[in-house]
Design goal:
This protein is α/β, with parallel strands linked by helices. The chain starts with a strand and ends with a helix.
């Protein structure tokens, strides 16, 4: 299964989610089953490393990051099985930019929708915040990725 994490600029939330997801996949020995990437709905940071605060929080949590910023591409709707938006604006932008058809809409979800009480909850953009905001986002994403992977694995057994 190919998973794409999407935020606005692809330097804070989505590369962090990608790193956390990859770490969980590796810890569970599921590397043959899942691959992931991340992208931004805007092309502000194409080719750049994740924000230094994202890198710092991931380093503290032993979460490797191997990503350079990229913009969401129209072909991503065909390349990925699941596309996860960090917030409602990202979700709307994904649907518009990828010209998502009704039959493809089930591929696009809000990141926190996998949490038991996560319906309607967003991952806030920490860009204009401080390191504490990035810590909070890491915690949210770690929980959301854990719930998502649990659900994906449960559904693959059924």
């Amino acid at each position: 299964m190919k998973v794409l994490f999407v935020c606005l600029g692809n330097i804070c939330r989505s590369p962090m989610a990608e790193g956390i997801f990859n770490k969980l996949v590796k810890e569970r020995g599921l590397g043959q089953k899942y691959t992931s990437d991340s992208a931004g709905t805007a092309g502000y940071h194409i080719g750049e490393l994740p924000d230094f605060r994202t890198r710092k929080i991931c380093e503290v949590n032993a979460t490797p990051l191997n990503h350079r910023g990229r913009k969401l591409l129209k072909e991503d709707i065909n390349t990925f099985d699941l596309i996860l938006a960090m917030d409602l604006m990202n979700y709307k932008d994904i649907l518009e930019q990828l010209l998502v058809s009704d039959s493809e809409k089930s591929k696009v979800r809000i990141m926190r929708s996998y949490e038991p009480d996560g319906y309607g909850k967003e991952v806030p953009d920490p860009y204009y915040g401080d390191l504490e905001d990035f810590k909070l986002v890491y915690s949210m994403l770690e929980n959301a990725c854990t719930c998502m992977l649990d659900e994906l694995e449960l559904n693959s057994i059924e």
